[in-house]
Amino acid sequence: MKSWVEISEERLTANYRCLKEAAGADITVLAVVKADAYGHGAELCAPVLAAAGAEWLGVTDAGEGAAVRTALQRAGIASAQQPRILVMSESLDEDADVLVASELTPVVSTISQMEALAHALNDGDSARSFAVHLEIDTGMSRQGVAIGASLDEVLRWLNLQNRIHLEGVMTHFASAEIAGSHQTLQQQRCFEQALHQVQDAGLRPAWIHAGNSSTVDNPFPEDGGTFCWLRNVAKDVSARCMVRSGLALYGYSLPIEVQQGYAGVHEARIRPSLKPVMTWKTRVTGLREIEPGARIGYNGIFMAERRMRLALLPAGYADGLRRDLSATNTSPAGWVMFGKERAPIVGRVSMNLTTVDVTAIPSIKVGDEAILLGEGITADDHACIARTIPYEILCGVKSPRILS
Ligand SMILES: *Cc1c(COP(=O)(O)O)cnc(C)c1O
What is the signed CA dihedral for 389, 393, 395, 396, rounded to 10 degrees? Predict the structure, then answer.
């Protein structure tokens, strides 16, 4: 194997427990395993999270949900013990059969999505009622139903039939990592109005959920954070509540930013306790010495200024190693780790190959392991160099994964 990803079962479990502890006994933590568990392998991670006690998992679409359901079965977890699986992106009508067959719980926001589900149920057991979670668009303008007339129409439809039942009401925050965010407060007010409409319609959802990893990490508002608010709104409608966490499970979280003019606390609550779950490794396939003046890689953007010893690594941008990590003489960028020692990337990262400078580590031999991402070189480091977020870095890693 040219490069591979080791997934620490122990760290994944510890991060999940850390989130649970931070959320407290009355807030459930839905474990998000969408996008192949942020590049960690949903089929590896879902059984680990189920064993750690996750009551809910979150996926993006019906296909992912079906694969996770199969993985849980293969792991030998009895159907009754399996977590519920929330499908968080809105589905197309043609997904209804898979949603029903794999016992997934879709997030919906339109009557036509629910009609498709009712239709898929009609072919089966007529006594069955299928649970859906309704997303409220509280200000992201992405998914969800708007409060007011549109929401009333959906609620009326739900009240008139008994095949589909409203089990959950949820929303998503646009700026969860910003302490003092006006937008979060506005979204909270809007969600409260939606919950009043739901109550006025006589519907009694069992679950209310909102918020992500940053919602757990961000201490704002100071009277207990967004989950204090969540607890209160859920209590008002006698529902259980939950946050949906992804990134923190895998050991990362966005830095807490501060809204302009906000002077309150903004220290991350859990970030210091999280540990990266992914270690991405490769092995040296070649070593060479080059003379001063020699150029390295495509376009020769790096020129040796002294005698150098280079190690060749069989991983590149096709595997998800960002090309932004390429380095010229005047702008160093990425590096890899050999144990505790850094080896800077020199020249361009190419499709399947990357060259690193090991002049300072004479012990390196062909076959030695190098860490592309993990201890000493994190997804935050890659994200900073590639001017993106750790989410995109983790999701981009393509190498085969093994549980360690
Ligand atoms: C991805 C996602 C989450 C998890 O977000 P993190 O920032 O990774 O914790 C929560 N809710 C919804 C709706 C999502 O799509």
Answer: 140
Low-confidence ranges of the chain (pLDDT < 70): 123-127, 223-224
Q: Would you say residue 273 lies in a domain?
A: no
Pairing state between β 130-135 and 105-108: parallel
> According to the model, what pLDDT value does residue 13 have?
98
pTM equals: 0.96
The preferred substitution site among 32, 86, 187, 253 for testing ligand 1, maximizing ligand atoms within 8 Å of CB, is: 32
Instruction: Check residue 128 and give its pLDDT.
Output: 75
**140-150 confidence digits (pLDDT tens):** 999 999 999 99
Same domain? 348 vs 370? yes
Amino acid at site 63: G
Known catalytic membership, residue 16 = no
Q: What is the pLDDT of residue 228?
A: 87
Alpha-carbon distance values, 42 to 31, 90, 142, 239, 352 (Å): 11, 19, 25, 29, 25
**How far apart (Å, rounded) are the C-alpha atoms in residues 136 and 77?**
33
- Please tell me the predicted confidence (pLDDT) of residue 222: 73
What is the predicted pLDDT for the residue at 225? 75
Angle between the 9-23 and 42-51 helix axes, to the nearest 10 degrees? Answer: 50
DSSP 255: P
Q: Are residues 189 and 318 in the same domain?
A: no
Whether ligand 1 lies within 6 angstroms of the CB of 88 is answered as yes
Selecting among 16, 20, 34, 391, the annotated active-site residue is 34
For 95, which DSSP code? Answer: G
Pairing of the two strands 240-245 and 130-135: unpaired
Q: Do 263 and 315 lie in a common domain?
A: no
396, two tokens: 């981009």
Q: Tell me whether residue 235 is one of the annotated catalytic residues.
A: no
Q: Dig out the tokens for 363 from the structure.
A: 């012990």
Look at residue 158 in the predicted model and tell me its pLDDT.
97
By alpha-carbon position, which residue is closest to atom 14 of ligand 1?
88
At 96, which amino acid appears?
Answer: A
Domain that holds residue 154: 8-249+256-268
The reply to whether ligand 1 has any atom less than 6 angstroms from the CB of 246 is yes
Count of structural domains, the chain: 2
